[in-house]
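Example 3.2
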Amino acid sequence: MDALIDLFANTQAALYEGVMQPIAFALGLGNRLEDVFDGTGWLLVGLIQIAVMLLVIGPLQRWRPVEAVTDTHAVHTDVIYTLIHRLGVFRVALFLGVEPVLDTLMGELRVHGVGTFHLEDLWPGVTDGPFTSFVIYLVVFDFVNYWLHRAQHQWHWWWALHAVHHSQRQMTQWTDNRNHLLDDLIGAVIWVCVAQLIGIAPTQFVAVVAMTQLFENFQHANLRVSFGKWGERLWVSPRFHRLHHAVGLGHESVPQLAVRGEATEEGATLGGYNFGVLLPWWDVIFGTANFEPRFDPTGIRDQVEAGVDYGEGFWSQQQLGIKRFIHALGFSAEP
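Structure, written as tokens:
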């Protein structure tokens, strides 16, 4: 673990000194070099992730696909989402618009005695090593992710945004980042707040985020792979997560059509199965696991059965998501 951390740190420093620092000075950001250095780390993570996607997950998809890709335009749109997130555009927006507010809020909390503690300190002597503490934080954030995911499917206003993700009918490794930007913003703010409250070190936080994202790419892959009876209960597989995206099954359990103000059809509901991001343990514990050995078509019921438009390109998906969101909050008659 230490060797990997050192390798990453050295590469980050070289990229910062050789590329990012000169760009920062050219743009008049000489007073923000510490932030530019942190951003260089996220950029490096994104480049590594994209390389793994192209060199490892991509060939796996071609080796054993679930279905033939017939809508390449939809996949290209997902690539745009991935590049926005993994090459730092979304991170820059967070840095400029959100992180200063969160830093101020956390500073005020500390002034009033609400201090940050380090979660691994609860088990002194057991969690001293970086690998052990990393595993603890990974499990904690995965637990948080499970409940965030449940909320995205249970609260109508949040589903109005999250539906962008589920509207992809040609699911591939690029689909993970196909999200409404407001949906991503809400999730990112919660993650940053949790990170501040439990005291995870910045390098550990980057590692947890990087690993979570990369495995999410794998789980969304157009890949006919199951981990078997026991493996499926230890780690989320592409089959396990694909069922979560299955039409009329994976993401249904409270009225869905009420989001659009229409009568609820029997079975057309929000909720569903297999919300775990990395670990299926939470689905097993809380009764949302489905281990049926099936590879269903993906999409949303009203999209498939009633032709509801969720948008074809990036901007149309974002605009329609905002309209559904406003409607779900009760501020408009039509989504």
